[in-house]
Amino acid sequence: MGNLYLTITIVDRKKSVKYARLFQESGLFVRLVALGAGTASGDILDYLGLEAAEKTVFFFVQEEEDWIILKKSLRQKLQIDAPGEGIAFTIPVSSIGGRKTLQFLLAKEDYQKGEESVLKETTHDLIIVIANRGYIELIMDAAREAGANGGTVLQAKGTGMEQAEKFLGVSLASEKEMIFIVTRTEGKNSIMKAIMEQAGVESKAQAIVFSLPVTDTAGLRLLED
């Protein structure tokens, strides 16, 4: 059993189709896609050999050994290491909000859950909630009641939803919202539990929840004090 990682790939929007095709060929059917834009200055872009462009951001969770295979394909088939081609990176997943969420994210049933956290010395976690659009207030009310200070929302589109439906047993909307909530590690489980109870898969929000370890923070001290 490998560790779980959130993989984020950022590429020029014009090149997103070939990346999406490679992900599908690699068995990564369940993923979220968001739109973004590059913000580097002209001097930096010239130095890196890049051009200012609209971006596509892919999010998906995979096992460590699958990332090793994907990284090789990204380098050999799409030359991701070439200047201006794109970037992909991974972040360890520290916890998953229930077996259905795990099956949704991996689109398979045979993964055996291991230890709760990959990084042991962190003091904060980033909780990520993926839910149907229109339920931000419900989710954030539940999170705040459990001790969360606030969150950030990103619009996204889910792909491979039909692949995940057989694990969740419910029909899934493709239009999604991703909510990012940074919290102290000791309060993480209470917040995740509250969201799952009030806006979980069985509700209209159909929220799934997982967390990533945060190695350091700035700007949270006054809120937490």
Characterise this structure.
Helix content is 34%, strand content 31%. It has helices at residues 16-25, 42-48, 64-77, 99-106, 136-145, 161-168, 185-199, 221-224; strands at 4-12, 31-37, 54-63, 86-92, 95-96, 124-132, 152-159, 175-184, 208-214. The chain folds into two domains: 4-92, Alpha-Beta Plaits; 95-224, Alpha-Beta Plaits (2-Layer Sandwich), CATH 3.30.70.120. The chain is built from eight helices and nine strands. With 225 residues, the protein is α+β, with helices and mostly antiparallel strands. Strands 4-1-3-2-7-8-6-9-5 form a nine-stranded antiparallel sheet. The longest helix has 15 residues, at 185-199. The mean pLDDT is 82. It is globular.
The percentage helix is 25-40%
Indicate the proportion of strand residues: 25-35%
Largest β-sheet summary: 9 strands, antiparallel
The tally of helices reads 8
Q: Based on DSSP secondary structure assignment, what is the total number of beta strands?
A: 9
What value does the average pLDDT take? Answer: 82
Under CATH at level 1, the class of the largest domain stands as Alpha Beta
Within the largest sheet, what's the order of strands? Answer: 4-1-3-2-7-8-6-9-5
Q: How far is the first residue's CA from the last residue's CA?
A: 40 Å
What structural category arises from helix and sheet content? alpha+beta
Q: What does the radius of gyration come to?
A: 18 Å
* pLDDT < 50 stretches: none
Specify the oligomeric state: single chain
Shape: globular
